[in-house]
Every structure is written in structure tokens, then in C-alpha cells.
Amino acid sequence: MYLRKILLLLLIALMPAGSALAQAPSMNQPSREPKRYHAVTGLRPEKADYYFKIHAATWPGVLKMIEQANIRNFSIAVTEIEGKLYLFSYFEYVGDDFDADMRRVAADPETQRWWKETEPCQIPLPDAAAKGEIWSSAKEVFYTR
Amino acid sequence: MYLRKILLLLLIALMPAGSALAQAPSMNQPSREPKRYHAVTGLRPEKADYYFKIHAATWPGVLKMIEQANIRNFSIAVTEIEGKLYLFSYFEYVGDDFDADMRRVAADPETQRWWKETEPCQIPLPDAAAKGEIWSSAKEVFYTR
Predict the structure, then answer these.
(1) pLDDT per position in chain A (145 positions), as tens?
(2) Where are the domains positioned within chain B?
(3) CB atoms within 10 A of CB A28
(4) Which positions in chain B touch A135 (Cβ < 8 Å)?
(5) What is the CATH number of domain B32-138?
(6) Which residue of B has its CA nearest to A71?
(7) Contact yes or no for A24/A107 (Cβ under 8 A)
């Protein structure tokens, strides 16, 4: 472990200054390379219009919390599969402690009020429901910049 | 139409140089503000491993064509819904003629060979199948930068 670290530091020290690795952030600083998150949940058909309407004018406090939680480029799309509606979310996380940031979001009173509006619109898939959660993670299988 | 254009040009000419609109690209140049595309399709369970495997090492010619077609930040995620597998794609388009770029992708021989590998893995939803297509568009209902 230490040997690998020393070899890596040596390698970086010997590299030309303009090269990509030499420009990489130090090990103590968070990397700003975004990590992508995909998730899915169900949408109640009788609540779909309300869900779309509130998301078209998402409360400023909710958007502010998303931004403070280091979430970027966050979109939710809707699609119909076999007669049922599903929501798919995509976002990029640019912080260095995802769990801590998500706990901050969950502790935010305005976000809690927002979720009181949105959660009755959603039908969690069984794996999320079993954990008392709303969104199920989807695994990324392809990416190109 | 012409009056609006003249008024807009006048407005831009009168604006301070540092303002956002004055820095916008001219009307003859493509806007680089990405347009987001979301889509969904089914995945045959018996072909899933093959689909993941080839996408983990997507052919360079296919990636090059994606890049040349002004597609950026392109990811595909997989999820299981009611015992079936579905693929969700997200990408950003930075060109100024999406249809023309997609026609170029479809005309690329390497991409055609790639699709010969991937299409047997996929189960288009009925709306896509009816058009002879693979992916169904999903409508974006929320976005924050």
C-alpha cells in the first residue's frame, strides 16, 4: 500500500508539468470529476399532472439545497412502460461525501415539505419500498464523454 | 419576423459588452447550450451479459461517430421493473441539426455493424417498434443545472 503510494508520488514528481496526472488534484482534496447517479421510481397516473406541475416550478429552497448538496445537471424524465408511468432521474455529484450530503438534504425542512408533496405521487419499486425509500438505483452500463 | 430580428439585434448592440446576451453566439453559429435527450428500451435477459460486455469496451469507431455527431455526456443505465430489464439512456446534444447528425450516425458503416450486435439484445417498446425504431423518447419533467 505505502509502496504503491510512494511509487505514484515519484511518478507524478517526474512527469512534465502539463501532463494530465500532474494536474490532478492532490489526494487530500476532493476530485471534481462528477460521479453519475441513475435512479427509477413509479408515478401514480392520477397524480402525474400534479407532479409535472410542481416540478415545472420547483421551490427555490429545494433547488438551493440540491445545489448545496453538490448535485449538478439533475433531470427527471417520465415514460410509459406496459401501461404504467415511471420516472427516471439522472444527476452528477461533484462533492466528496455523497452520504453526508444526502443526509443534509434529508434534514432540510423545505426539502421535507417538498417530499410531502412529491412522495404521494410516487410508487417505489419493491427494492426501494423494502428500504423505506422512493428511488431505486439503476446501474450504469455505458458512458462516453 | 424581420422586425423582431432587427429589434433583437438592436438590443444586443446596445447592451454592455460583458452581459450574457452580448456574449451569446451569433445567429449563424450553433448554440453550444446542450439539449438533453432521454430514452428507454427493453433488454433481453438472455442477452444482457453480452450487452454489458460489449458496452464496457465500445468500439472506438462507434465512440468517434457519437462524438462527431455532437453527442456528449452519453450514459446508459439498466434497471429491473416487474421482472423485466430496461435500458435508460441520457445524452446531451451540442450541435445545431439533430436530425442531420442522427442521419450521419445511421449511415456510418461501423455504427451499422455495432447495431447488428446490439439490436438483437433489445426489445423496443411498442411505440418504437411501430416506427421500426429501438429507443422510445422519454419526456423531461424536471431539470436543474
Answers:
(1) 444 544 444 333 444 433 343 334 444 445 568 999 999 999 999 999 999 999 999 999 999 999 999 999 999 999 999 999 999 999 999 999 999 999 999 999 999 999 999 999 999 999 999 999 999 999 999 999 9
(2) 32-138
(3) 5
(4) none
(5) 3.30.70.100
(6) B145
(7) no
